[in-house]
Design goal:
The complex is a heterodimer of chains A (about 300) and B (about 290).
Chain A (H helix, E strand, L loop, with lengths): L1 H47 L13 H8 L1 H34 L4 H12 L2 H12 L4 H13 L14 H27 L3 H9 L4 H12 L1 H15 L3 H8 L10 H10 L3 H29 L1
Helix pairs in contact in A: 1-13, 2-13, 3-7, 3-10, 3-12, 4-7, 5-11, 7-10, 8-9, 10-13
Chain B lengths: L1 H22 L2 H15 L3 H12 L18 H9 L1 H34 L5 H13 L2 H14 L7 H8 L3 H11 L3 H9 L4 H12 L1 H16 L3 H6 L8 H4 L8 H21 L1 H10 L5
Classes of the chains: A mainly alpha (about 300), B mainly alpha (about 290).
Chain lengths: ~300, ~290
């Protein structure tokens, strides 16, 4: 008996050894690349964030103090926060509002493709359209003016959507436009993954649709929520493309995001500030991801 | 009886209304495409007339016609046959996307396999690191990429865009999702039959984990076809630029070109989207797999 156990133990030890070797062989190319292109240079950046750019003099937290006192940095952080805090809840709710009725349809292929299509549309292509829509003399004003004439409530409108505070909302709109599709797909996967017995049992017990939604569907979607928030967050940084193409490197100030700032620092070779800011933003994101993950783990 | 019938009818009616309501937002998806297509077959004179209010300061509004007065393929002809630069940019895009996807296949897929199949101490922590790296936006890693590319002397070559993307951890994560869906017993059985690890990967893993792999490719294509931040930061020579960066350079004065070039940029993306929609959806769902 004991003999057999020892043999088995040795076999599994061998297995573990073999596993480790195979693991390393398969992973090595990727790991080397990630180390060379991401990890090591990031350590370098971390080091540089404590030095001046030209002389390489060690200045402790000097660069960090500079960026936190920098007005452009404060503005960019504020706008980025505002953008994320407006967009993500909005996207989550809109996605769910669309996914719920879609999940009850028999054939949802067409509707899903239509909602997903903006994901495939290159930004450079869509920006031409946004410009035509949101310019002072663009389609939106034309439409609103016609609406005003028709209802008799207001006259001609000539709002400049890209040069005023409205620019922020143009960005929000184009973010939602682009990302609703995949949010719907993720919600749908979550909703269709709920075992139908749960809902049937509840209905037999006389639960109303509203009760089913709040007591069964929503609590079962926590996992999807975590995913959607993380992915929306990731994609919210890509809005820079639209912002840059619509309004350039120095847009109206409500639209000035961290991405603009990084890019402008890069162009001006302000590497010390960039290093400090990269460490701050990277650290912050890392903390948020870990926190979300912890929250999600503890609830299930 | 009547009461029940009317209730059923009301339910039918409500379902039809919801279907209609669901199609309303999709108008927002279709309109831009219609706009681009009609713009691309309009003559230059007609376009200028409609778009004039946009670049003058008058109070007139922009106008448009869904069917142009004189539909013409003039701008397609000019773009395709008289602008060789356009081809250079188009092939730049194709080349970069192709190299990136190929590199990701060769480097990322085995890595995903390693994470999915072998339970090794430290493996999970490493995977968590990969996930965090995948979530870091380009701007955070921009300076570090620049430093390493500078040291390797790759700046202002297309390799500067290709190499960092090849080692992106996003495809690893997606392909991992596909590999995880294969039952482990299958590998055990293959091992008992004496198959080596490489053979298992090649003969079992790749065919069965195909969906994860293809979804990584489809999402990757759409992402890199649309790539802007990387080439903008690392390529100064405009002859190396991808199409996605060149398009915005076209001014309103050449609106015809802009529309046509947009349509041509759109075509490969639409093609991949239509062909790979199932994988795209699968990929989105895999990207949501929580481990």
């Amino acid at each position: 008996m004991r003999e057999a156990k020892r043999v088995k133990g040795r076999r599994s030890g061998l297995r573990a050894h073999k596993d480790r070797r195979a693991f390393l062989v398969f992973l090595a190319p990727s790991l080397v690349g990630v180390a060379v292109f991401v990890l090591m240079p990031f350590l370098d950046v971390f080091g540089r964030s404590f030095r001046t750019v030209v002389t390489g003099q060690f200045v402790w937290f000097g660069n960090y103090k500079t960026i936190f006192a920098n007005q452009a940095f404060q503005l960019a952080v504020k706008n980025t926060f505002r953008f994320t805090l407006v967009c993500i809840p909005l996207l989550v709710v809109i996605g769910l509002a669309i996914a719920m009725p879609v999940s009850k349809l028999k054939s949802m292929g067409t509707i899903k493709s239509l909602y997903l299509f903006p994901l495939a549309m290159p930004t450079a292509t869509i920006v031409i359209v946004w410009k035509m829509v949101f310019y002072k003399q663009g389609f939106l004003n034309l439409f609103l003016t016609k609406l005003g004439e028709w209802t008799g409530l207001w006259g001609e409108l000539h709002t400049d959507y890209l040069g005023t505070g409205a620019a922020f909302w143009v960005l929000v709109f184009s973010y939602i436009w682009k990302n609703t599709g995949y949010t719907v797909v993720l919600w749908l996967a979550g909703i269709l993954g709920i075992p139908s017995e749960y809902l049937e049992a509840a209905r037999v017990d006389g639960a109303s649709e509203r009760q089913c939604f709040y007591k069964i569907i929503l609590p079962n979607l926590k996992g999807s929520l975590y995913t959607i928030v993380i992915l929306s967050f990731l994609n919210s940084f890509k809005i820079y493309r639209e912002a840059y193409l619509v309004a350039g490197a120095y847009p109206q100030q409500d639209m000035y995001l961290l991405q603009h700032l990084f890019n402008n620092w890069f162009v001006n070779l302000d590497f010390d500030k960039m290093a400090a800011a990269a460490v701050c933003v990277g650290g912050f994101l890392f903390a948020v991801i870990m926190l979300l993950q912890r929250m999600w783990d503890s609830r299930t | 009886m009547d009461f029940i019938r009317s209730k059923i009818r009301w339910k039918d009616c409500r379902r039809n209304i919801t279907v209609c309501l669901l199609f309303v937002p999709t108008v927002l998806v279709c309109l831009p495409i219609i706009l681009l297509v009609t713009g691309s077959v309009m003559g230059n004179g007609e376009l200028r007339q409609y778009l004039a209010p946009v670049f003058s300061d008058s109070l007139n509004f922009i106008s448009w016609k869904l069917v142009p007065d004189y539909p013409t393929f003039e701008s397609y002809g000019k773009l395709l046959f008289m602008t060789p630069q356009f081809f250079v940019l188009f092939w730049n895009s194709m080349k970069m996307v192709g190299c990136i996807l190929l590199g990701q296949l060769v480097i990322g897929v085995p890595a995903a396999w390693a994470f999915a199949v072998y339970q090794v101490r430290g493996g999970r922590a490493l995977f968590a690191l990969y996930v965090v790296l995948m979530l870091l936006p380009f701007q955070v890693t921009m300076l570090s990429s620049y430093l390493v590319l500078n040291r390797l002397g790759l700046l202002d070559t297309q390799a500067a865009v290709i190499l960092p993307a090849v080692f992106s951890t996003f495809p690893v994560f997606l392909t991992y999702g596909g590999f995880r869906c294969i039952p482990v017993q299958l590998f055990e059985a293959a091992r008992i039959d004496g198959a080596g690890e490489w053979r298992i990967f090649w003969k079992l893993g790749l065919p069965l984990g195909k969906s994860g792999l293809l979804s990584a490719m489809v999402l990757g294509f759409l992402e890199y076809w649309n790539m802007m931040e990387q080439p903008m930061a690392f390529l100064e020579n405009k002859a190396l630029w991808p199409l996605s960066l060149y398009l915005p350079e076209i001014t309103w004065a050449q609106a015809g070109y802009a529309f046509t070039a947009s349509i041509i940029t759109l075509i490969p993306a639409v093609f991949v989207f239509v062909w790979g929609q199932d994988y795209l959806e699968q990929g989105i769902i895999f990207s949501g797999l929580k481990e």
